[in-house]
Amino acid sequence: MNIIKVKNYEEMSQKAAEILLDKVRQSPKMNLGLATGGTPVGLYRELVQDHQQNGTSYTQVKTFNLDEYVGLSGDDPNSYRSYMNEKLFNHVDLPRESTFIPRGDTNNPGQECTDYEALLKNHGGVDLQILGIGSNGHIGFNEPGTSFQSETHVIELTASTREANARYFNSLDEVPTHAITMGIASIMRSKEILLLVSGESKREALAQLMEGEVNENFPASILKTHPCVTIIADEAALGKLAI
Ligand code: F6R
Question: How much is the pTM?
Fold first, then answer.
């Protein structure tokens, strides 16, 4: 794993945008894997600003999001579809039909998972996957204990993940209990991975990733076995980690 040390959240977002934009300019037909949550908000802001100032075009790009809450429709303000529309899709020239996110309001989540995995494969897989990390080491919504062989599946969210995400809802009760997520194997098929880590609340997770063993109880640890992972971490997340 290649690690890039940056000062703070702003620098992390700028560096991530620089890497992503280089790829999009080199390969305008690329498949981008996207994440939600607090971590990539700054990255999306940078992409929007770049699109407005420099006109980088996404007309041929396809995007595949990692996950979606089960039970929420794309119109629900807390759905990841709404998040993506608001933070990125509404502000760049990416055709809406080229943006893929698992459907949370399906009445057959199992089928939705099979279809999403097939969709990923039919499009030739993800070229560059953006990831954040949960403080328990989850990537996507693959919570500790998820098989490294897993493909897109339904997962029950842990109490700590629901609590961490409750900040976006009116109350903890409203946070869905399940999500559809790309599996670990699905994520690992990405040709390249960019993991963003910012803030003191991620310090332990980053230390565990850098210093711990590869183990299903810490899902992100699998990234050590991927041939092309770059981590961009800020000083608050790195703490005293010697890199
Ligand atoms: C979101 C996702 C999650 C988040 C993780 C960190 O699509 O897949 O793995 O990246 O929960 O969330 P934040 O960035 O809010 O700390």
Answer: 0.97
